[in-house]
Structures are given as C-alpha cells and as structure tokens.
Amino acid sequence: QVQLQESGAGLVKPAQTLSLTCTVSGDSLANNRYYWSWIRQPPGKGLEWVGAISYTGSAYYSPSLKSRTSISSDTSRSQFTLQLTSVTFEDTAIYYCARGMGWGAQAADYWGQGTQVTVSS
C-alpha cells in the first residue's frame, strides 16, 4: 500500500520560505515509472500543480511559480521536499504531495492527506 505524508510548518510569515516534506512508504522514489509532485489548493479555488521531481532527481516547476520553487529528494530516506521562497498571502493553501505517471493532479494516483499552510503576519 503506497502512502504519502506531508509535514512542515503550518504557519509562515510573508516574505519567508515555506518548507514541506513528503515521506513515502510502500514505494521508492527511485521507481522510474513515477513522478513525485506537489499540488496545492488555495481556499475557494481549484487544484494547482506546483512542481514535481523524477526518479533521476530532475525537477519540473509550474511556470508561474518557477522563480520561487525548489523541489529536492532524498531517496535513502524516501522523502522529497518543497521550498517556496518569498511567500505571500496568495500562497495560503492546502498542500498535497502525490505520486503519478505524469505531472498534474489528473495524473496522480496516490495522494497525501494534505497539510494546511497559512501565510500570515
């Protein structure tokens, strides 16, 4: 059974860096069939793909967030991380990590439960 679990700070101040970790069990980040993604849902809005990392460690980012986003992985610890710099109130969202054979929410077959991140001073 594949499971993903997000962890990290739930409250971030404006202009600071949001950092989240996804811990994976039941699969390996070295599995060459899948991408490991971060997806978010702002309040009252739809799902937004943030970025993904492949089994090679190559990262791919949403064009609208690329300048502020970094995704990395630690295969030995079965974890991948999201860092989003210079956050604003618009970055407030539920953040999900997910596994998929492609990018985007439609490609994801396993999801974490999601973690609320609020940007507030």
The H/E string reads EEEEEEEEEEE
Largest sheet entry: 7 strands, mixed
Stretches where pLDDT is under 50 for at least 5 consecutive residues are none
Percent helix: under 10%
| H/I helix tally | 0
Mean pLDDT: 96
Shape: globular
**Helix and strand composition category:** mainly beta
Task: Say how many strands there are.
Answer: 11
Distance between the termini: 39 Å
Radius of gyration: 13 Å
Strand content: over 45%
Explain this structure.
The chain has 121 residues and is an all-beta fold. Helices cover 0% and strands 50% of the residues. The chain has no helices and 11 strands. The strands form 2 sheets. Strands 2, 4, 5, 6, 9, 10 and 11 form a 7-stranded mixed beta sheet that branches. Strands 1-3-8-7 form a 4-stranded antiparallel beta sheet, with no helix packed on it. Strand 4 and strand 5 form a beta hairpin. The protein is globular.
Task: Briefly characterize the structure.
This protein has 121 residues and is mostly beta strands. The protein has strands spanning 3-8, 11-12, 18-25, 35-41, 48-53, 59-61, 69-74, 79-84, 93-100, 108-111, 115-119. Strands 2, 4, 5, 6, 9, 10 and 11 form a 7-stranded mixed β-sheet that branches. A 4-stranded antiparallel β-sheet has the order 1-3-8-7, with no helix packed on it.
